[in-house]
Structure formats: C-alpha cells, structure tokens
C-alpha cells in the first residue's frame, strides 16, 4: 500500500530535494537530517489511521518535534539562524504534505476495501414509505360532522378540563348524584375536573348565544370506568343541541332516525328506552342492533351480553331548569339534546368488538381503515 497519493508524492519529492539542497550547504545539521529520516521511517511503517494521527501530533503538534526544533533556533549564533531556519521550515512543509498524503491514501484504501466487501441483495423488496391516515374514530366524526353541517348545525369544540359548575351544577345535576362521586369522575380539585361528557358546552353556548341554537360538539370525555370489552376510561362523544320555539320530542325522534339511517343504513333497527338524565326531561337511551352477533343474541356475545342490542347514546328534551340557569325562558323556547358514543358507532360500522384497540396504536389494526 503506498503512503502517498500521486499528487502528494510529487510535491513531497520536490520538497525533499529542496530540503536536501539546504542540508547539503551545511554539514552540521544532524538534528534536522535525523528527524527527516525518522518521519520517513514512521510513514513507511504506519498500518492504520491511528498510527498516522499519532505521528502527525508528535511531529507537527503544538508540542511536536518540529515545533520544538523551531523554538530552539534562537539559541544558534546569529549568522547561522537564517540558514537553519530555512532548513527547518522546509522540513515542516515537507512533513505536513507527506503526512496528509499518507492519511488521504489510507482513507481511500479503507473506502475501497469497504466497497469490495459490501454486498447488496437486489432481489429484496424496496422499502416503502409509510403513509399516515385518519384514525377510524376521526373518520366517524368527519362523516357525522358532514351530515350535521348539511342540516345547518355549527361544529364546536370545548375544553377537556371543565369547571364543576359547567359539568354538573348548570346541568341540573345535584350534589348527591352518583356521577359527582370522586370514585366516578377525575377531579383536579373542588372546582376543576376532566369532563365526563361534552354536555358542559351546552351551558357555554346557551350562556353566550340567544336561540335559535343548532350545534354539535365532538370530543374526548373521561370517566373512571374499568377497562373491558365495552368500556374505557377515555372515550369519544358527539353532543348535539337544538333550541328553538316549538321543538318537540317528535323532532328529536326524527333526528335520531335520520342519524341512524345515515350511519348504518336503512336496515338497522333502533330502540328507544325510557331513561333518566338530570339535564333532560323526558329522557331516553338509544339502542341499535348488536354489531357483533347481528341481533341473534347468543348468550356468549360479550358485546350485547345476549340482548341483541347495543346502547350507543342518550337523548332527551332539555330540562327547563337547564334553560333557566342559562338565561333562556322555557315558556318560550324548548329544545332537545343527544350524546352520541362515537367509539361505539365506529365499532358498529367496522365490526370491532373491543374498544381498547383504538388506544393501542397498533399499526396492523389501524392500517385496515
């Protein structure tokens, strides 16, 4: 392996001849001559980059031998300094180029060796760039939002951290209601909590806007539910609120049937069950045909638990007390509200039987949608 590149070798030879001419004019430069021979020997014996770097530091570094040699020239008689200084500078220039040429040669040889040993299997498939996509719940939200916008609704968002007043008090939920138990709701302190439904935005809208009101509020909600095949501590809802003159429960039922037909098609059955919510009266639970067993209701179905139905959301007419607390006269205006469980709707659309999959970030699962 040569230690000099062709161009570097050319300049090194020229400098070497110049150095020899300077040394030839003086017979008493054994220190410079010996140092040059030492460098040549070290370059010839260098086997790797570490040896070359160590040689560079020992010869040309701040404490290198040539540096020390140049410093010692001041001790020579005045008439000898110029000639000795010229010889020392020529030695330094030659050593600098020679060592750099050796390092460049070594790097080139190492690169050639690396390329010679590298192998590429051209039969392997190419690496495709993974392209992101919407989460299945986001797809459901967008589908529903498109429907509501076409019906004249406004899409709003609310804060995840709510006040106890907006989450409970202004929604006609008394202090002794089970949902206000610390074991059921995530509290930060006596005044702040993670909202357990998107209904607090009803209060914010009614306090800020005079009727008529038609809004839909999608978002994440939180409750201290045990994780199982139908429950997670965090889940998604889409709250709907309509307030105007002459709104009836018949208007609510018509809206629910329209939503169900839009999501599941005309063949899906719907069932309304009387229920209780503090902020609506009368109230109802909305069930649809089980998306796991297709309403065959076997005893082993873990989604519908053998009933053939799955609860997807709640609804009802806005309670007069809620209207009054928000500054709306219940003698003039009425309204309805509904809360869609969009996690369950997404499961019904796609045949997903375990909502925990939505939060696992499993690419094999998410890439199906």
Secondary structure topology:
Blueprint (H helix, E strand, L loop, with lengths): L5 H20 L4 H16 L3 H12 L4 H8 L5 H40 L18 H15 L3 E2 L5 E3 H4 L24 E3 L5 H9 L4 E10 L11 E11 L4 H16 L5 E8 L2 E10 L19 E10 L1 H6 L8 E8 H9 L12 H4 L3
Parallel strand pairs: 1-4
Antiparallel strand pairs: 2-3, 4-5, 5-9, 6-7, 7-8, 8-9
Overview of the molecule:
- This protein is an alpha+beta fold.
- The chain has twelve helices and nine strands.
- The longest helix is centred in the N-terminal third of the chain and has 40 residues, at 78-117.
- The strands form two sheets. A seven-stranded mixed beta sheet has the order 1-4-5-9-8-7-6, with helices on both faces.
- The relative contact order is 0.10.
- The model is unreliable at 1-11 and 21-27 (pLDDT under 50).
The overall strand count is 9
What is the fold named in CATH at topology level of the largest domain?
Answer: BirA Bifunctional Protein, domain 2
Please estimate the helix content. Answer: 40-55%
Name the poorly predicted regions.
Answer: 1-11, 21-27
What is the gist of this entry?
By secondary structure, the chain is an alpha+beta fold.
What attributes does this structure have?
single chain, 369 residues, alpha+beta, BirA Bifunctional Protein, domain 2, 2 domains, seven-stranded mixed β-sheet, two-stranded antiparallel sheet, 12 helices, 9 strands, 18% strand, disordered N terminus
